[in-house]
Amino acid sequence: MLIPRPVLDGVVAGRVTLAFRRWDRARAKAGALHRTAVGLVAVDAVDVVRIADITDADARAAGAASRAELLRFLRGRTGRVYRMRLRYAGADPRIALRAEATLSADDVAGISARLDRLDKASSHGAWTRAVLQLIAANEARRAPDLAEIRGLPTQPFKTDVRKLKELGLTESLDVGYRISPRGRAYLAATAD
Length: 192
Known about the structure:
This protein has 192 residues and is α+β, with helices and mostly antiparallel strands. It has two domains: 87 residues, Archaeosine Trna-guanine Transglycosylase, Chain: A, domain 4 (Roll); 97 residues, Winged helix-like DNA-binding domain superfamily/Winged helix DNA-binding domain (Arc Repressor Mutant, subunit A). It contains nine helices and six strands. Helix 7 crosses helix 8. The protein starts with a helix and ends with a helix.
């Protein structure tokens, strides 16, 4: 579920507690945590609602200026109207993880094991260390350029980089990526 930045800021501030979407089927689940630009957003409830039951207060709780504005947003889309109860659930844990620049031997072994599993599960062969080295040598370079160097389409390359980001080894920039402090510490610890 995509949430615009002003609405996300409202979730963090506690002003926005609802979201409305029109979908052919529910695309959010109660209990889910979504990583966003502002941190984690929890979905506490997902209900189907009738448009007639949406109030001005509901619209304001969804970050709209009025019920009419919210209805304009929903118009032109098909499917049922879903109301989600949202709340800010804290900072993205990957931020703290990627800042950890002091790695124990167990940390290095654990990261290596995770990278080995990613390499083994890959349909295009071992890639993790090569992509880490590629990003380290090409900070802030566009993903399509890096994908071309790897001989992959852009989307599979980005999917691979997201897996490294989950481990706290890389960071996304406005353009391209960089190795996080944790990633640099791992590369230094495993350099030949």
